[in-house]
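We close this part of the discussion by returning to an individual protein. Part of our work consisted of pairing the sequence of a single chain with a tokenised description of its backbone. What the numbers capture is local backbone geometry rather than side-chain detail. The amino acid sequence and the backbone structure tokens for this protein are reproduced below.
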Amino acid sequence: MQKAETRRSQGPIGVLLMNNVWAETPSSPTQPPSCIAGHERPVPPHDPSAPGQFGTKLKGVPVSAECVLYLPSMPLARSLSVTSLSGLEEWDEEFDLEDAVLFEIAWEVANKVGGIYTVIQTKARLTSEEWGENYFLVGPYVESNVRTQVELIEPTNPALKRTIDKMNSSGCKVYFGRWLIEGSPYVVLIDIAFTAWSLDSWKSELWELCSIGVPWFDREANDAVLFGFLTSWLLGEFAAQCEQPAHIVAHFHEWLAGLGLVLCRQRQLPVATIFTTHATLLGRYLCAGNVDFYNNLAEFNVDKEAGDRQIYHRYCLERAAAHCAHVFTTVSQITAIEAEHLLKRKPDIVTPNGLNVKKFSAMHEFQNLHAQSKSRIQEFVRGHFYGHLDFNLDKCLFLFIAGRYEFSNKGADIFLEALARLNYLLRVNHSDVTVIAFFIMPARTNNFNVETLKGQAVRKQLWDTAQTVKERFGKKLYESLLVGQLPDVSKMLDKEDFTIMKRAIFATQRQCQPPICTHNMLEDSSDPILNCVRRIGLFNSSADRVKIIFHPEFLSSTSPLLPMDYEEFVRGCHLGVFPSYYEPWGYTPAECTVMGIPSISTNLSGFGCFMEEHIADPTAYGIYILDRRCRGVDESCNQLTSFLFQFCKQTRRQRIIQRNRTERLSDLLDWRYLGRYYIAARHMALAKAFPDTFIYEPQEASQTAGFRYPRPASVPPSPALSRHSSPHHSEAEDNEDDERYDEDLEAEKDKVNIRQPYTLPMKNKSIAIIGANGNGDEVTSEKN
């Protein structure tokens, strides 16, 4: 038999000291080992025609958390990371994917649960451009989501149509359609509830195969078992239905989808597998328990810790998927270290999360959008603080923290402590700046706070009163001008007008302080944020220069309190504060960056480490990196207070300059750059699973000058470097700043430090390739 033509791909590399050691065995890379350390049961030969191969009875190798899976030798032993973005423009893309099919499997496909939904949704357009009609997302069928997000259609791929028909005739319920997002990717949605009758038998098989027992009361783990068996059934049936052997790539996200990967490997399916962990289960639980996590990574007894937290079965599923995968990836360097110690496997490649920057680019009008959104927040503040509006809204800064309600993990504890210290500094320095800090974290509530609703009603009543008086005034002015007389100002407002205004002013009288929380909390006495506010004594009093608003619900444009969606709200704020202790990546500061809003993150977050690595002076670009790795809590809190105080001392013009610089970093977070690491992972998996057909040769990247932002040419926006001692902003300062700062010139210099986004070839279409020198020369070519 003639050997298939070898396909070669060369990838970018920033080499980590993370080399997986593959056992030297002569067996085929597509087959799992015949036995695992400590176990002697052999793997039976794969027989696609045998009953039970796709979704019923299985026999084979047990996989437990205590054992290490020694997989056969693969062509690659190097690990990739994003230690440098240099060299990407030299990446030689030569893989022919005509007969390759990509399945991306995740619980968050068309099902918004967590941050992985954002990863898959924003990456879909780029992946669809690369794979065309051969890209399929696989997720659970949730009827409420399908009605609004998915257009159900007939399968376009003949083999996939036969697969779905076969599964549906065998007692499953599988749907096919297009996900109505940018890129319109195909989705395969599996109704796990329809096959719930198989749960007990499949859990028994999981115990026989892997020695993993799933308790009956863990509904999430039960869903993972159903989803895993059904996805492996789908992939196995698809491989059997293909008329010619297809090169299948299956990319699994997180432990909820990981069982499908383990079953694919155990059944010896011809599938190249990738497993991505966005955050390890055990790491999240440990950090939530106030453990000194990063200093004790190497010391944890992982089996005991998982057992103590009653997640041992989940941990086993996650660890088995990590060890069985051809390619194991994480989203950041900090998570790669965590996975090495907790999951006992070093990631092959780090795949950082990107964003669809076009969505947030706002056609260079982000400064105008900031002003518009800020005015809407100011309207809410006028109502919330009615009766105590003794501060200047034009000198008011809006800070916010948002995300999952994990008080310590997300850094809400250190943020509140820093706000108390900032309040002291602003008061002793007699600052006229007022800081309003928003906490957008969903918690258990039963309704809106009556006092908060009343505030918005009072504000609206005052506005209506002002409009009424204005109309009466305008009518009298009009009548006076019609007869050719100048109006008598003393007669323009009569007694009735003054009565209306007095009543409106009387309605704004308030005896209590403005509320901290906008909702009625179900567990007010034990809520961490409210208890911390009580301890530090920030009760929105008139003497305080720092005010706090806790909004324990996600933002919505239909809310009667703050009718704004999250993107509008972020645009209207001045600074996002995310001093997280545990943050594998960090989409919230990334979203701030692409919208031109400065942010504070930490060197324990994936985003913070990434930006610190690729920007010479992150602070000048509005990216403040808080050190929580080498400092104690009190020192970190002092550093955060210093960041906040320096930000409060900036003039309005300095903040505008900083926002311009922040927005220019958005290209660094575009999927057009960061999507290349997912491409590298898929090519690596193909080379490992099909070594006779694909060869992947990573190359050392030379140290080039690109992809690292230098310090700005102009003076950084820091009041410490200002020549003026006066804190007041003047026209003289404006004129001098105009001479020292040239926005267009600085933007052009920054463009030199990052290449133009890479344009992927679209399947069977003419493509435009951006020149490697970054000057945008287009070369038209056609795929043969």
Observations:
- Residues 48 and 605 are 45 Å apart (CA to CA).
- The chain has a mean pLDDT of 81.
- The chain has 25 helices and 21 strands.
